[in-house]
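Is this the right way to post structure tokens for a design question? Let me know if I should format differently. Anyway, here goes:
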């Protein structure tokens, strides 16, 4: 099993003018650790896109899987803010192959788990569940596409 990585967020200070400030005070100075999303075992045909991913590298990798390694299909995965980049990757791939690809997109909502660390170390660790959108795009070459596409 892989190690768990976290992203830290600190909750906001309570609003003094808000009537629910006593409720907000309970949330004061708690640290939220965002766990890395769980995903099934990665296949050689999977490409996971993140905000930090470089488009050129993703495009070259996708082209090499389809054209050089001649895989029947690849799947491009994007979560949250990476969804537009995932779609953009497919559009660039379509342009690079001169419209010689077919693609099918599936959207889903995934549950993500956050750990909440209380300020008082004697209190128990809490978790919260939040939802985020995801996209899974299966891309394959059209029949006879290898003849019409120039290999890099």
């Amino acid at each position: 099993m892989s190690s768990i990585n976290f992203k830290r967020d600190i909750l906001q200070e309570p609003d003094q003018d808000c009537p629910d400030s006593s409720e907000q005070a309970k949330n004061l100075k708690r640290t939220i650790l965002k766990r890395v999303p769980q995903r099934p075992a990665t296949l050689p045909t999977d490409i996971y896109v993140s905000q930090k991913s470089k488009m050129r590298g993703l495009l070259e990798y996708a082209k090499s899987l389809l054209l050089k390694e001649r895989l029947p299909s690849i799947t491009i995965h994007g979560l949250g803010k990476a969804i537009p980049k995932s779609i953009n990757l497919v559009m660039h791939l379509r342009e690079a192959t001169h419209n010689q690809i077919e693609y099918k997109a599936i959207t889903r909502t995934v549950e993500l788990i956050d750990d909440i660390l209380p300020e008082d170390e004697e209190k128990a660790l809490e978790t919260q569940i939040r939802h985020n959108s995801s996209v899974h795009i299966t891309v394959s070459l059209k029949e006879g596409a290898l003849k019409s596409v120039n290999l890099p």
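Format looks fine. Someone answered above. Worth noting: Residues 47 and 61 are 9 Å apart (CA to CA). The chain is about 25% helix and 35% strand.
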